[in-house]
Amino acid sequence: MNAKDDVSDIKSSVKLEAVKQIVRLQFKDGKTKIGDDAVRLVGEVVQLLIVEAAARSCNQALLCGQSVVEMEHVEKVLPKLLLDF
């Protein structure tokens, strides 16, 4: 991702089936089910996290004087991002 791109251009898509499987892994009882509305809601939260991480990483790259986002920029913003959520 180019750090100079407009943050509003950042797009993300989350596969709801993947979200459902990840959430199911957290259940202790195998009989526990999750509704489609809950899966969509968790998917929206995951999508927001992805977009916010991308935007913050772009800003971090710009602060470092770089025009390309590297993994170091993502690593630098993740602790604060996780605390904010």
UniProtKB/TrEMBL annotation:
Key words of the record: DNA damage, DNA repair, DNA-binding, Nucleus
Gene3D superfamilies associated with the record: 6.10.130.30
Record carries keyword DNA damage: yes
Pfam families linked: CENP-X (PF09415)
GO CC annotation terms, alphabetical: FANCM-MHF complex
TM segment ranges: none
Compartments it resides in: Nucleus
Biological processes per GO annotation: DNA repair; kinetochore assembly; replication fork processing; resolution of meiotic recombination intermediates
UniProt-listed SUPFAM superfamilies: Histone-fold
Keyword set includes DNA damage: yes
One GO MF term attached to the UniProt entry: DNA binding
Quaternary organization: Heterodimer with CENPX, sometimes called MHF; this interaction stabilizes both partners. MHF heterodimers can assemble to form tetrameric structures. MHF also coassemble with CENPT-CENPW heterodimers at centromeres to form the tetrameric CENP-T-W-S-X complex. Forms a discrete complex with FANCM and CENPX, called FANCM-MHF; this interaction, probably mediated by direct binding between CENPS and FANCM, leads to synergistic activation of double-stranded DNA binding and strongly stimulates FANCM-mediated DNA remodeling.
Family stated for the protein in its record: Belongs to the CENP-X/MHF2 family.
Protein name: Centromere protein X
Source organism: Thrips palmi (Melon thrips)
